[in-house]
Automatic annotation (TrEMBL):
CDD domains found in the cross-reference section: TRX_Fd_NuoE
Signal peptide per UniProt: none
Family recorded in the similarity comment: Belongs to the complex I 24 kDa subunit family.
UniProt-recorded name of the protein: NADH-quinone oxidoreductase subunit NuoE
Cofactor: how and how many bound: Binds 1 [2Fe-2S] cluster.
UniProt GO MF annotations: 2 iron, 2 sulfur cluster binding; active transmembrane transporter activity; inorganic cation transmembrane transporter activity; metal ion binding; monoatomic cation transmembrane transporter activity; NADH dehydrogenase activity
Amino acid sequence: MSKFQYTPENEAKFQEYVSRYPKIDSCMLPALWLVQEQEGWVSPEAMVYVAEKLGKTPIQVYEVATFYTMFNLKPIGKYHIELCKTVSCMLCGSRELKQHIKETIGIDAGQTSEDGLFTLSEVECLGACGGAPMFALNGEYHEKLTKEKVDELIKECKNDN
Ligand code: FES
């Protein structure tokens, strides 16, 4: 029995998702997404919970959760920077931005700042290639980024705390 549980609100959402699909298997992604909305990340305990709810083995849930970069497999900072590293963004300067973020916040891809504010992830194409280079900040897209724009965004985040 898993220690993780959906809140009553998320349990109701889960049941609503289940009613939308002919096979409960199809609920794997929304079920994991609900976990992440609730906790900020998908823990091994939560994967076991989702497996129990869907009648799957934990490894089947693990395979899905680890395939998609949108699922955080460890706790993340308050501000999650998902920097696109795919070709268009790479050619337009994503590597330089990554280095700039590293120098500014002190974190590399896959790391969280010591104050718990920022997590930097490198992800594959987010479908905004025309706005390269870009990153998503807590899911909100910021395109045609420059070091100056990155500095502004980081400053805004810090000022909100
Ligand atoms: S290559 Fe970066 S959004 Fe597509």
